[in-house]
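Support reply, case 0932

Customer input (verbatim):
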Amino acid sequence: MNNAIDLLCAHTIRTLSMDAVQKANSGHPGMPMGMADVAMVLWTKFLKYNPKNPQWFDRDRFILSAGHGSMLLYSLLHLSGYDLSMDELKNFRQMGSKTPGHPEFGVTPGVEMTTGPLGQGFATGVGFAMAERYLAAQFNTASQTLIDHYTYAIVSDGDLMEGVSHEAASLAGHLSLEKLIYLYDSNSISIEGETNLAFTEDVIERFLAYNWQVIKVDGHNHEHIEQSILKAKANTEQPSLIICETKIGYGSPNKEGKESSHGAPLGVDEIRRTKMGYGLDPDEHFHVERQVYDVFQASGELGAALELDWNNKLKHLDKNDPVLYTKFVSWMNQTYLQNITDVLPEFEADSKGIATRTSSGKVINALKDTIPNLIGGSADLGPSTKTDIIGAGSFTQYNHDGRIIHFGVREFGMAAAVNGIMLHGGLHAFGATFFVFTDYLRPALRLAALMKIPSIFVMTHDSIGLGEDGPTHQPVEHLASLRAMPNLLVLRPADANEVSHAWKVALENKKGPSVLVLTRQNVPIYSRHNDNSAELVAKGGYVLSEAENGEAEGIVIATGSEVQLAMQAQAELAKKGTSVRVVSLPSWELFDLQSAEYKNSVLPTHLTKRVSIEAGSTLGWQKYLGLEGRAIGIDSFGESAPFEELYEHFNISSNAIIAYFNDQS
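Our regenerated output:
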């Protein structure tokens, strides 16, 4: 049922993929060969895109969750007219190319997200679809539809095996994300052999249980593929999974349907035989017939016309509803961020204070009107993380207009969805859970850092200060491990005013994700003046309390809840005639970015008596302490007890600081 030109288009995707993998002597040809028919139908008959403007806001989003098959996507982008030349295809997997081994966001035009870690494209796509539905609820009117696009993904057996796909599929079905359509490459082959070695579940029944529409088709029959996508688009109540039965390495005489075609070049002789089987010249490499370009580029031209129509809708909105138009432009351009400082809450000094999770909740709700597109929620921990946006309503299957997202106990799925919302554009999203559960969501956090997208994660219950819940819930190594991650901004504020400015920093951060690490227990709110303004959080570290007469003998450096111990020790040492400076260091990353002059003003090189205190691993602190310094922390797991007893038990105390300076005297 496949006409000649469509078949030629599909075969061209296959030959480009084979040739590129062979030239690189590295890559995965089997998946692009198997899914070429499905991808061709989607890209030439359904996908809404404009290669001349890859960022057109109302485009459909396409995610290659099976990122190892990257040559499938690169072939599609090249054929469709994106800025991806044939030379780039020939440079597949080489240094500095736009065709890296797995698709990378920000490297290749048309790549919506970085994929490769299986399951994450699947899960992040749910965030794309959530963003589309929320924005549609905000901006579509009875007279005009401004937001109307689909999120498509090609997913693999490996994606479906990964646990995050279960979390994400469950959430998507629960929320009735009807504009989410996934095409499942069901080829029954994984790296080790046939998938039934490890994967025998009934995928159909699984997704039906998740409240998905499930459609099964021959993945090499163009008419059936087309009809299945039409059926998926016609469903206005459920996301859809189209199970495409395909043959990996399709057309290869000796490797079709075998794991040998998955992750290695086919070989020169096998490629020749495969091309001959397609009816193509075996001696031509990286060859594209003009009529193939014509087919794909006609889709791009249609997309350009659709974008023009959409731009006319914007003009119509500007003329007929300028208030809604201004709102839309503000959300797209994030101009609301200019007004953050005006509404940040300021907290009066208070020795009793409040927990930083509580002050964070106050900041969120102080910002909710100024940043009306701030949206987010927690992994079933809203009352504990204090992240509910009061009065904003819940985002549910019945109401896509709410700003509070109930992610359920799905930390990994939550973080991936937050990434998807941020990648989609138009919104500012956050996700929240206990700090120890960064272990569950770390792969999505790493992907956000790799993509340099400004997702925000609120992590509460940040130390042994959690208390009686014990070592299973008490993070110890987590600060050190997150500080080791490139492009990630870690903020552990000391008091309520540092929390305010930590939120400002996170919202304005454009270079990667931010993690706000917050306490369960109360901490004091410190007295502020010009020299120790909480605005200095933006520099990562500053002098919170200067030594008496400004003549310090040493320095105490602390973060978060342990700053109060540093302040207590400073006061006690002063009584005994030892003057020390207290430095609050909420963000190592920001502090390290400052000038040498500024860093030396906070941590003068001549002051070698230094001690740090933090209720976590001491790993890494030595770079601020030098050879003579001492790091006070916890390098074992915690215990179950009231938090005051735990701090005493592990000697994370003002007395430990005092003992250090006594030893130095």
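We compared this against your earlier run and they match. Two observations from our side: The chain has a mean pLDDT of 97. Residues 221 and 436 are 48 Å apart (CA to CA). Please reopen the case if you see a mismatch on your end.
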